């Protein structure tokens, strides 16, 4: 809702329609995840989306000065661009033409966290008994 209001405030609505960008109402998590899975790249200012897109191996361009998820930048799955729109255009072209860096997997971001937690809890229970 905030983004939509800003787009209207700065009269970007017509430009967006020409660029095949869809503004939607807020959507649920599963629908959003489905949209992410179909994306070639993601522009965001959300820390959570930086994580999820990195896990899904979708290039992320973050429209902020910093991130609370620095591992995503260190491993090359996320690039901080702040408000540098020339840089954003350059990276978008590289991503869409498959000339962009390939991010590396992030250690322990393998979907096995709950299994590791259970193993640690079992070990601790055995220690205490």
UniProtKB/TrEMBL annotation:
Organism, scientific name: marine sediment metagenome
InterPro entries: UDP_GlcNAc_Epimerase_2_dom, WecB-like
PANTHER family: UDP-N-ACETYLGLUCOSAMINE 2-EPIMERASE
Name assigned to this protein: UDP-N-acetylglucosamine 2-epimerase domain-containing protein
Domain annotation UDP-N-acetylglucosamine 2-epimerase: ranges: 1-121
């Amino acid at each position: 809702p905030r983004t939509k209001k800003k787009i209207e405030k700065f009269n970007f609505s017509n430009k967006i329609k020409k660029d095949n960008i869809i503004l939607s109402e807020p959507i649920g998590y599963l629908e959003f995840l489905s949209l992410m899975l179909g994306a070639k790249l993601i522009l965001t200012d959300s820390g959570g989306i930086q994580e999820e897109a990195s896990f899904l191996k979708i290039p992320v361009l973050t429209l902020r000065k910093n991130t609370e998820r620095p591992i995503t930048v260190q491993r090359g799955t996320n690039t901080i661009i702040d408000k540098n729109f020339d840089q954003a255009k350059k990276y978008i072209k590289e991503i869409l033409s498959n000339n962009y860096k390939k991010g590396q997997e992030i250690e322990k971001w393998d979907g096995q966290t709950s299994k590791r937690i259970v193993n640690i809890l079992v070990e601790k229970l055995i220690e205490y008994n």
